[in-house]
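G., the chain you wanted modeled:
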Amino acid sequence: MLLIFGSRAYETLVVLVSFVCPHCGVDARQRVMKLANRFTLFFVPLFSFSTRYFVTCGNCGVATSLTRQQAEHSVEWARTAAVR
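Predicted structure as tokens:
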């Protein structure tokens, strides 16, 4: 019997926000991303076994790690900023 299993990383855009990058110091669009590693069986993703959040600067491209709470906070901040 042949059993094909492995893992694959899936990257998802969570929200776009604008603030000053801590690396380059430019006020630019920042992409908040979610990276989920999923276990696959016969190339079908079954479940996530690790999830990370990070923000990527639109100007310099530097990626900075975020916690889940920081990512959720940026989503809420973007929602309230859009209402204004």
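Strands lie at 5-20, 27-41, 44-57, 63-66.

Shout if anything looks off.
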